[in-house]
Description:
The complex is a heterodimer of chains A (115) and B (109).
Chain A: E1 4-7, E2 10-13, E3 18-25, E4 31-37, E5 44-50, E6 53-57, E7 64-70, E8 73-79, E9 87-94, E10 105-106, E11 110-114
Parallel strand pairs in A: 2-11
Antiparallel strand pairs in A: 1-3, 3-8, 4-5, 4-9, 5-6, 7-8, 9-10, 9-11
Chain B: E1 4-7, E2 10-14, E3 19-25, E4 31-37, E5 43-49, E6 55-58, E7 61-65, E8 71-76, E9 85-93, E10 96-99, E11 103-108
Parallel strand pairs in B: 2-11
Antiparallel strand pairs in B: 1-3, 3-8, 4-5, 4-9, 6-7, 7-8, 9-10, 9-11
Amino acid sequence: ETGVTQTPRHLVMGMTNKKSLKCEQHLGHNAMYWYKQSAKKPLELMFVYNFKEQTENNSVPSRFSPECPNSSHLFLHLHTLQPEDSALYLCASSQTRDRGNQPQHFGDGTRLSIL
Amino acid sequence: GQQVMQIPQYQHVQEGEDFTTYCNSSTTLSNIQWYKQRPGGHPVFLIQLVKSGEVKKQKRLTFQFGEAKKNSSLHITATQTTDVGTYFCAGRNDYKLSFGAGTTVTVRA
């Protein structure tokens, strides 16, 4: 039990589908993150939210749309994805946005496959 | 931009042997964190180093931060099968945390 729960664990979708990834943290943290993990590559930070406000978008294509309704929930809405978007999508949380000084707690991830 | 490089990418170790994985940054870091990801799992925070030359130990794991705060190492003694996984370093600079690509460790029994 990590305190960060991601659903679904696995997702297969076509390029024209619309789906959403969900992340929920039970740690009382105020910052949440989306990462993309591809084989043999470093973790790629996608978005950062601090107290529900987006504070960082690392040039992520608009086919990925994040939503943070409150400090405990984070969504990643997916639309018209490409095959190269197939990866493990990890959600993480930390006490605040100053993430360098605090450990990040990761969820188990959603394994996404684009057909 | 800041880059964090890890070597080696893969480490195959005989059970009982020692090994070291290295993390190098192109810029001076404020601090560095280490994470471990078991196969099929998610990254789990291990430790954070902040001071120049800092050394911290967790049982058989020894973490070191370089004097110039641009590199770090993780040394594991008497490797066990439970040490299998990918070890990531993450360096902080200018409020940005950059992860290395990781060292994937396999153990021969």
